[in-house]
Amino acid sequence: HMLLRKRLPPLAAMPHHDRNAPIAFPDSGATGGNGSFISRTANALQMLTDTKSTLGGLCGEWQVASSGEAQLDGQALEVAYRALGQLGFATVCKYLGFLVCGWMRKLFRFIAANLSSELRGMLVKLVTEGNGAGGSADDARMLRSAAQRLFSTSGPVMDILAEIGRLQLLRRRLHGMLQLHAQLHVPVALEALRALDGAGLMEAGGLAENDDEALPSVRNYVGDDGPSLEDMVLRFHQRLASVSEGVGLGNPLRQFYKTIPEGTSVEGLDALLACGIIVAAKNEGRSSASSGKVSSSGTNRFGWHFRRSDRSGAAASAEGDHAEGGSSASASRGEQLAALAAGLATLLQHLPKAQTEGLFTVLGIYLGGLCQENAFGQEHLWSDGAHLIDLLECLLELLGLPREHLAGFVPQGILDLWLVH
Fold it and tell me: Cα–Cα distance between 366 and 233 in angstroms, integer?
């Protein structure tokens, strides 16, 4: 509640309160003090996964960007689990979820303050004029120019999304550890809880089958003097959600403790996100063309990394070149794009589907234009498209969409040839 700038209600009235492991606010750890064990552990985990110095989190463990040394792996998390226990570990994960709420609130405050009506109109025009079948070289140049003009607005948005994605990936990893221990120690209870959670989800979505009137119902045991059936169901769902989260069920990337407020204007947000991605890919493409290694700082303005995709780097990797910086160059591109992709996926899953389609439309036009520019001798732009495709594939995976979904916005042959290059 301190992060969300709301008045603190009684702890017993909070839906996420657990009296066995309460999260005390205001926590002095947020203002520079020692803080509770929850905030201290969360701060340590955030330092170990800092995107300015580490890679990973999507499919593998976190590694030091400069040396490839393991930074936060399963062994370290196992030590933390044994020290904190199941309840403390789950509470740290919940605390990170509250931090995500604060960053999401900051994101929409920034968008509301900096996205004027004129700017929204220009961004909407970029989406509505797209034909979804790939653009021309003029379209690509126009989009690059618009992205540069909007950099002062899109840059901070990319920063916030990368931070949200880093926290969400960390939460997902902690959830995986909780679920692993539950499967090892109480597998039957976990399967029963998973079935109950799935049934509750189907009921909430209106997908459950109609009740058989011949079978007994909970309505037969609810007296007139007791709580209403709606209150009982609500409390049951709250308890079920709390227990399910404690054993690592659910995907943190698809849920967080704050929904997008109703009435929030997201018009033009899809094009703004596309412009931010275009600028970042362009800047990284230039740095990779001039140097086949990661820069001395290992980061860019947004705090996320790219694997170099030039031919010489690939050839050196194939020949077993393990020179200094080689470990970073051979790392998976998807891992280096993990934080931003996870942040985008978290945001898009809580926005109307039209925003996701608009983002793919703008980037599809840009990729089609880049393909034509490359055909006219602009080979230095090839790496820009490679970075974009890497990010889009990570985003599709996190959204649960097949790779073929991009075929509606970019010809499939272009994607395959780009990856071969």
Answer: 49
Distance separating alpha carbons of residues 245 and 313, to the nearest angstrom: 43
**The pair of three-digit structure tokens given for residue 197, joined into one six-digit string:** 């959670």
- The first and second tokens of residue 131, run together, are 């034909």
Q: What are phi and psi of 55, to 5 degrees?
A: -125, 155
Max CA separation in the chain (angstroms): 80
Q: Is there a contact between 371 and 139 (Cβ–Cβ < 8 Å)?
A: no
Residue 357: which residues within 8 A CB-CB, separation 6 or more? 270
Distance CA(258)–CA(244), nearest Å, equals: 18
Mean pLDDT for each consecutive 10-residue tract of the chain (421 residues)? 58 64 56 70 90 83 87 90 88 90 89 82 72 66 84 88 92 93 91 85 59 62 66 81 85 77 76 85 56 40 37 37 38 64 90 87 84 65 78 88 83 66 43
Q: How far apart, in whole angstroms, are the C-alpha atoms of residue 140 and residue 376?
A: 13
Alpha helix positions (H), 248-352: 269-290, 311-318, 326-329, 333-336, 338-348
Q: Quick one: 294 exposed, middle or buried, by C-beta within 10 A (0-12, 13-18, 19+)?
A: buried
Phi, psi torsion values for 76, nearest 5 degrees: -65, -40
Residue 16, token pair as written in the block: 């996420």
Count of residues in the chain: 421
**CB under 8 Å, gap of 24 or more: what pairs does 412-421 form?**
414/134, 414/367, 414/368, 414/371, 415/389, 418/382, 418/385, 418/386, 418/389, 419/386, 419/389, 421/309, 421/382, 421/386
